[in-house]
Amino acid sequence: MTKRRFAPLFVTQLLGAFNDNLFKNAVVLFVVYSVYSDPHAETWFSAIATGLVTLPFFLLSALSGQLADQRDKAGIIRLVKLAEIFIMIVGAIGLMLAWFDFAVHLLAVPLMLLAIFAMGVHSTFFGPIKYAILPQHLKKDEVLGGTGLVEAGTYIAILAGTILAGLISVEAAAVAVLLVAVIGYISGRKVPPAPPLAEPVKLDFHIVRSSIALVSGTMHIRRLFLAIVSISLFWTIGTVLFIQFPPLVKNVLAADKAVASLFLAVFSVGVAIGSIAINRLLGGAVSAKFAPVSVLAMGAFVIAFHIVCRFWDSGLPPGQLMSFAHFIDHDHAYWLLATLLGIATAGGMFVVPLYAFLTTTVDTSLAARTVAANNIVNSGAMVIGASITIGMSAFGVNVVNQLLLAAAMSILSAWLAQKLHLACD
Question: For residue 6, what are the CA distances in angstroms to 11, 142, 217, 364?
Fold first, then answer.
């Protein structure tokens, strides 16, 4: 954390994750609480926003992986962070139009969704670098710790951005996202050079062909296949949960947007705790031995969360929402938050070692493309998760019962994680 070979990268990725979540959650909370008054429309909008930020990973990860392995990673970081400034200008205009209540449906919401999609593109090109650069700048016994810190930092940033999105006005969010983008660009310029470790070859800009080639060239390695599919199931579960939080808080718990931010924040804190805890348990070794029990614990906590939600009674008349203070005073609030924290902590313990597998199983010169292949499969799984959520809502399945899908998927995740543990440890 005090070395230039790690600190600027850590700060840059932290600010990027913070800005991404501040903007996205400011948009989603504004639309859910100020534009729509229909639970199905709110769930659909939340799913669409999640799908837009995920789609670029599916389409462009192959190109981003090629670039990251064949060009200076630090140079790509500078270009990506410069682009973030212009993306946030577009997003800030959308937020300001929403604040002035001017052409909200016609102009403000489309501009905000465009910026969400563009931030997805930004993250697609930055994502492979933040993991693949670690084996290049860190010692072998530092990679798991560095991965854990990056993952924990990401979720701390998600926490901060999510909390702030629920507390500030849309006009303040417009100013904040621009300011953070500029600071992120400055910190990105401090990342030390990370030149390619292999001879550059011609880039394949055909996104379908290059994506198929990248995934097929990675997934034939058994341990990578098991790790990538396990991570993808984790993110499918996470997508279902994150989509449900805002409409669940509003329509089931009858609480305001500050409570919705609290839910997303607690989830982020839990993953950060799990990321650090698993590194301590494993002593720096890359191993999946705790992954099966971690994801089963995650599923058990999801069921407990579901039960608390089913028996929740706000005691308020229809249409009235609890404030943050009123929510905290509720008899079941701490049970709800404890189960949510358990879901996230177990999830963090499950997924962090799997990310370490991606960068330590292959040659360092192929690390970025391996992460990119993982991102393609992950994003496809997340889009499927978002689509399933929309479909369940369309068929009248309420948000509380949709949580059971996440619990069921944890069983399959545990089975895959056990196979990975047996194959690698």
Answer: 9, 11, 29, 17
Q: Is residue 33 part of a domain?
A: yes
**CB–CB of 347/305 below 8 Å?**
no
Which residues is 255 bridged to in the sheet?
A: 322
Q: What is the pLDDT of residues 158-212, one digit of tens each?
A: 778 877 887 788 888 889 999 999 999 999 888 887 776 666 667 777 777 877 8
| pLDDT reported for residue 89 | 95
How far is residue 301 from each of residues 165, 308, 378, 404, measured CA to CA in Å?
26, 11, 23, 11
| Count of Cβ atoms closer than 10 Å to residue 280 Cβ | 10
Q: What is the number of alpha carbons within 13 Å of residue 167 lying toward its C-beta?
A: 10
Domains in the chain, number: 1
Q: What is the CATH number of the domain that holds 92?
A: 1.20.1250.20
Using DSSP's 3-state secondary structure scheme, residue 255 falls into strand
Which pairs with CB-CB distance under 8 Å and at least 24 residues apart come from 298-301?
Answer: 298/237, 298/342, 298/343, 298/346, 298/347, 298/350, 298/410, 299/406, 299/407, 299/408, 299/409, 299/410, 299/411, 299/414, 300/407, 301/339, 301/340, 301/342, 301/343, 301/346
Range of the domain at 352: 7-192+205-424
pLDDT at res. 199: 67
Task: Please list the alpha-helical segments (H only) found in 285-365.
Answer: 291-310, 324-329, 333-360
The pTM score is 0.69
